[in-house]
Amino acid sequence: MRKAGLASGQLFSPGGGTGRSFRLTGAESEVTLSLFPVDLAEHLLARADELEALDRFRIAAYIRAYFGSPARIMGRDDTDDHEALGLIAEAAGYDASIFQDRAALDAELVEAGWRPTHDMLDRLGIADPWLRDHMQARVAAGQTPPAGFAVYFLRKRAMSPGRVEMARTAIHTSGFEILAEQSLSPDLVENLRKSTRGGNWRKGPFPVSGGPPAYLFFVLDVFPHPPYAKTRLRHPLLDNFRTLTCKERIRTAILTEVASSQAFNPVHSTDTSNEAAKIASMVLGAAACLELLRSVDDRLAQVAQRADGGTPAGPATNGFVYMRRGSVLRKLYRPHLASKAGAALALHRGLGVSDPGWGRMLDGSSEAGYVDFAEPGEGLRPVAVCPLPLDLRALEQLRDILKDTETAGWRIDENSLFESLWYSPERSKLVILGAEGERGEGGLLGGMPAKRWREVFGVPRSVSIQGNPLRRWLWRHMIHPAASWIGRVQRSSRQGLSGLRRLLRR
């Protein structure tokens, strides 16, 4: 058509596939979506040669109400299309002025069942203040729960008992509490398929489609973390970074034993607590949804009470957060993991306070899920916020602590050990605050991935525990830096190729 000089156009796919989707502009240019929900798009395409005046009016009204103007979806400057829109309106029996009133158009489209899905509207509202305010006006005051409430959708292909349990374990491991689970009836499957993700439950970038939603987890993270700036570029609506990391953990767990040629996307998640509440109301009903949101409020009130006015002293882990209250540092566990405080209390009481590598415990409760320590000292902070890997002297201090612990007849849980390390780079001092353990031989209860040992100390686990000082020095100062440099080069190359592919697909 362009070559013939007749017209120019823009091609979109029914499912909003990569390179054939509407793309927001400016800072949100990474956000793409289809023009129509999939079922509506397929319905229109099937009747493309039979469209009547009312169909044409609704198409034009849809573009005007939700995308602003036809010019916007064509990627052009606004043009004077009032006359053409007026003729479309009059042919369908409407006054031409209706195209000047987006709210009136929205009302007509809602009545006809032509409104986009709620998540499509949320994304369109990112770059459209009118649409964002219009949608917000429909949300009753107090109906939006705080960040941390989310829904995970397991797709049909992931519905073997073993895979559901994998997802459940991944959610728990990520620190989320499962408030409710729901297997979907055929009617609910169809309803959610049409009303979420723009109805696009196809294969995406995977070789095989995961199918429609089949099973839901309603979850809560009482210590949500705001998304980082880089993450916001791809997920501008996301209200909790941990929702995304948990989804990736679920996906990795389920696909571990799936051949690459048969890989599929097994899970979808909500981006915001508001979206999660909409799904809960749709699936569970208004009364059950309200009860679920009361549970959310109860958990958060419980955390606020146990924090006792403290402020976070570092990022939350999958199990707890440190809260600072004057000269007291409280290790506060997530409510559903409160009993873990018992293992930390037992270990610290059993070892006493004579070793300077252990923080001075003041008080604690396994029922309320907290352990209080005296402020460990100036310059000490959680290893999670320290530059890694740590100085080799920190590893030598840890080795001495582990030897003394083993001699005393205690074993430390590795995961809790690493999350409980506080360090001062300036003073090269290491202190443990709240590690969990039990009576027994061996010194360490395994479980920490070998990769994490190298990240923290720049030395493999085996060399850290059994190697001689020379081997540890070689690993920390020569082998680890070289391997890290090679890894950065490889990641940079992969990211560059990925960015080029996305650019070529536009």
The tally of helices reads: 19
Please count the beta strands (DSSP E, at least 2 residues each). Answer: 17
Instruction: State the low-pLDDT regions, or none.
Output: 1-12, 15-19
Give the overall shape.
Answer: elongated
Q: What is the average of the pLDDT values? A: 86
Strand content: 5-15%
As a percent range, the share of helical residues equals: 40-55%
What summary fits the major beta sheet? 5 strands, antiparallel
The spatial strand order of the largest sheet comes to: 7-8-9-11-10
Descriptive report:
- With about 500 residues, this protein is of the alpha+beta class.
- It is built from 19 helices and 17 strands.
- A five-stranded antiparallel β-sheet has the order 7-8-9-11-10, with helices on both faces. A four-stranded antiparallel β-sheet has the order 4-5-3-6, with helices on both faces. Strands 12-14-15 form a three-stranded antiparallel β-sheet.
- The longest helix has about 35 residues, at about 470-505.
- It is elongated and about 90 Å long.
- The two termini are about 20 Å apart.
- Residues about 1-10 and about 15-20 have low confidence and may be disordered.
Task: Give the gist of this structure.
This protein has 506 residues and is of the alpha+beta class. Helices cover 45% and strands 14% of the residues. The longest helix is centred in the C-terminal third of the chain and has 37 residues, at 469-505.
